[in-house]
Amino acid sequence: MPSSRLSGRCGPRLCSPVRQLCCGVVRLRICGMLARLGATDFAVIRDALQVSDPTLSKHLKQLAQIGYIRLQKGLTLGGRTKTWVEMTVAGSTVFEGHVAFLREVTKG
Fold this sequence. Notes:
It is built from 6 helices and 3 strands; from the N terminus they run αααβααββα. Helix content is 63%, strand content 15%. It has a 3-stranded antiparallel sheet. It has helices at residues 4-9, 12-22, 25-37, 42-49, 53-65, 89-105, and strands at residues 40-41, 69-75, 81-87. Residues 1-14 have low confidence and may be disordered. By secondary structure, the protein is of the alpha+beta class.
Protein backbone atom coordinates (compact mmCIF):
# COMPACT_ATOMS: atom_id res chain seq x y z
CA MET A 1 0.00 0.00 0.00
CA PRO A 2 1.46 3.42 -0.92
CA SER A 3 2.02 5.84 1.91
CA SER A 4 -0.20 8.89 2.12
CA ARG A 5 2.82 11.03 1.13
CA LEU A 6 3.12 9.12 -2.14
CA SER A 7 -0.55 8.85 -2.94
CA GLY A 8 -1.06 12.54 -2.17
CA ARG A 9 1.39 13.48 -4.90
CA CYS A 10 -0.68 11.86 -7.59
CA GLY A 11 -4.02 13.55 -7.10
CA PRO A 12 -6.38 14.12 -10.05
CA ARG A 13 -4.67 17.35 -11.10
CA LEU A 14 -1.16 15.82 -11.24
CA CYS A 15 -1.99 12.36 -12.59
CA SER A 16 -3.45 13.64 -15.84
CA PRO A 17 -0.37 15.67 -16.88
CA VAL A 18 1.96 12.92 -15.70
CA ARG A 19 0.04 10.33 -17.73
CA GLN A 20 0.28 12.57 -20.79
CA LEU A 21 4.03 12.85 -20.29
CA CYS A 22 4.81 9.29 -19.33
CA CYS A 23 2.40 7.13 -21.30
CA GLY A 24 5.04 7.02 -24.00
CA VAL A 25 8.64 6.02 -23.37
CA VAL A 26 9.73 8.22 -26.27
CA ARG A 27 8.04 11.29 -24.74
CA LEU A 28 9.62 10.58 -21.37
CA ARG A 29 13.06 10.23 -22.99
CA ILE A 30 12.55 13.46 -24.96
CA CYS A 31 11.79 15.32 -21.75
CA GLY A 32 14.78 13.73 -20.03
CA MET A 33 17.07 14.94 -22.81
CA LEU A 34 15.60 18.43 -22.81
CA ALA A 35 15.85 18.68 -19.02
CA ARG A 36 19.59 17.96 -19.25
CA LEU A 37 20.48 19.76 -22.48
CA GLY A 38 18.04 22.65 -22.79
CA ALA A 39 17.06 23.68 -26.32
CA THR A 40 18.07 20.87 -28.65
CA ASP A 41 18.04 20.34 -32.40
CA PHE A 42 15.43 17.91 -33.77
CA ALA A 43 18.13 15.83 -35.49
CA VAL A 44 20.11 15.43 -32.26
CA ILE A 45 17.04 14.12 -30.44
CA ARG A 46 16.11 11.83 -33.35
CA ASP A 47 19.59 10.34 -33.53
CA ALA A 48 19.97 9.94 -29.76
CA LEU A 49 16.61 8.18 -29.43
CA GLN A 50 17.08 6.22 -32.66
CA VAL A 51 13.58 6.94 -33.94
CA SER A 52 12.33 8.00 -37.36
CA ASP A 53 11.46 11.59 -38.26
CA PRO A 54 7.70 10.85 -38.34
CA THR A 55 7.82 9.09 -34.96
CA LEU A 56 9.69 11.96 -33.31
CA SER A 57 7.44 14.54 -34.99
CA LYS A 58 4.33 12.78 -33.65
CA HIS A 59 5.62 12.76 -30.07
CA LEU A 60 6.85 16.36 -30.25
CA LYS A 61 3.47 17.46 -31.57
CA GLN A 62 1.72 15.75 -28.65
CA LEU A 63 4.05 17.38 -26.11
CA ALA A 64 3.64 20.78 -27.79
CA GLN A 65 -0.16 20.49 -27.79
CA ILE A 66 -0.25 20.04 -24.01
CA GLY A 67 2.22 22.89 -23.53
CA TYR A 68 5.23 20.89 -22.31
CA ILE A 69 7.59 21.86 -25.13
CA ARG A 70 8.04 24.70 -27.59
CA LEU A 71 9.13 24.13 -31.19
CA GLN A 72 11.06 26.83 -33.02
CA LYS A 73 11.98 26.68 -36.69
CA GLY A 74 14.76 28.68 -38.24
CA LEU A 75 17.05 28.70 -41.24
CA THR A 76 20.66 27.56 -41.21
CA LEU A 77 23.39 29.38 -43.11
CA GLY A 78 22.86 26.89 -45.94
CA GLY A 79 19.19 27.84 -46.18
CA ARG A 80 17.86 24.60 -44.68
CA THR A 81 15.13 24.62 -42.05
CA LYS A 82 16.21 23.55 -38.58
CA THR A 83 13.82 22.76 -35.73
CA TRP A 84 14.79 23.44 -32.13
CA VAL A 85 12.92 21.85 -29.25
CA GLU A 86 12.77 23.40 -25.79
CA MET A 87 10.93 22.39 -22.64
CA THR A 88 8.49 24.95 -21.22
CA VAL A 89 8.25 25.86 -17.55
CA ALA A 90 5.09 23.74 -17.30
CA GLY A 91 6.83 20.78 -18.91
CA SER A 92 9.84 21.12 -16.62
CA THR A 93 7.62 21.30 -13.56
CA VAL A 94 5.69 18.15 -14.45
CA PHE A 95 8.82 16.25 -15.51
CA GLU A 96 10.78 17.20 -12.37
CA GLY A 97 7.80 16.27 -10.20
CA HIS A 98 7.53 12.90 -11.89
CA VAL A 99 11.26 12.20 -11.50
CA ALA A 100 11.07 13.15 -7.80
CA PHE A 101 8.08 10.86 -7.35
CA LEU A 102 9.92 7.96 -9.02
CA ARG A 103 12.96 8.52 -6.81
CA GLU A 104 10.78 8.47 -3.72
CA VAL A 105 8.95 5.34 -4.81
CA THR A 106 12.16 3.47 -5.62
CA LYS A 107 13.98 4.27 -2.36
CA GLY A 108 15.09 1.07 -0.67
